[in-house]
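Hi P.,

Sorry for the delay on this. The queue was packed all week, but I finally got your sequence through. Input first:
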Amino acid sequence: MEPVDSPQSSEPSAEPGRKGSANADQEGGFFRWAAFLAFLVLFNGFCFFVGASDLYRLDRDPTAAHQQPWLDATAQTLLLESEARRSTAPFGLAWEGEGLPRYTDGVIDPLFPWLMSLYREDDPAVLFRRGKWFNVIISTVFLVLLGLVAARSFSLLGAALIVSLGGLGGMLDVAPLFRPDALEWIFTTISWGLVFALLRSNALWRYGILGATTGLLYLTDSSIWEATLAFAAVSAARTVTELVQGGEDGEREGAWSVSSQVAGLALLLTTFLIVTGPRLSYSNARYGNALHSYSYFTMWLDSPEEAREFRETYPTENALKRMPPGDRPGLVRSWETRGWRDLASRAAAGIRIRLASFLSGPVRPVIVFLCIVFFVLALLHRRAACSRDEHVWRVGGTSARWMAAFAFVAFGITLLSTGVAYPAHPDDERLTHLFLPLVLMIVWIANRFRRQLQRTRHATVATRTYRLLVAAPLPYLAWVMVGEVLERM
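Then the structure:
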């Protein structure tokens, strides 16, 4: 992801003591990597222990309201594909006639039920247990792979921080549930990481991978418009900036191509449609709208009961067409019936509750500390950039501001929309799913600033500030891990 910014030294390799120093550095690097890999092994064991313990200890009732809908959707997916095989024989829809993820009832999205339908278990209890194990395994594997990628791209301490906060900050809480939350955490983090990489250098292949990953996220949870809007706005702003500046600043990275932006967006849309095509087609046939989701309507209602009643009243395309235009829930109707003061009050109250939930628990408040230290490092970087003629190496680069802008805009829009929707959707966890991507962004940019400041007079302060950011929370997180283990013994 991130190459080392400082160039290789031009000092002679035959300098006395240089060879011994290089060997010592290599040996130290080997032991640091060995320690990090040992940490990953221990953390992997911790994740399996916590996941397995909670899997059998908590949420054992498959008929619980927060798990039953996905069991029902799995049964409907099996029924839909069984009917499709009978109607299309001898030419099945896909491999072994299993079909592609497409069934949705306007609330439950198809990917998780489709994956569960591959088990083809007649006994719901067995399917329920296997689905929970599936979530525990993919969560653990993802965190380990994320740690390896982060260690290679940033630093070992930064990777340990990302993995620890990702697991303790929420992924391990949702892994033992028969729900798609673990997949949402995974695809949200991957898609945000791809956006960060793309805002640094918009190579065409990154658009293609981002389109496919966003498609998988849409199949997991169709409420992706907040991040989509943020990416469209920030990438358009960067494109306009590049057109206006036109390469006049020789210190800019020069890694943003306007032509790649145009072609890349077309590629992104193409791969997204390829991945989500079956779901869009099914939704269009049943509801008359390929992008149909009841949440766009029910988020403006006043209670979960009203939302459920709305879905039961308008279950099909014909029913939705019969809805009087004046009764269609939305921003305009809420503005007309409530007034802007009441709407603003509803949004403010929901935002306060969502922020309190986002920072709840023993681990998530750590992100406040990360933001404070990150702000100090950003100020140091800004000071060096403003006085760069005083330094041996001129501090430059523009991608960090665009990465931070995307994160700020996407988080802000998601906070606003989930705040407005709180009365009708109190269990919406989309804001929580942004915790790990935000941690990733902070460590990514902080590591970038540290590297850029290495050949300035701020190098020592920058290194110490970065180490404070990535290392200070680790002892506390280790203490939390010990507490989690002792609680389950």
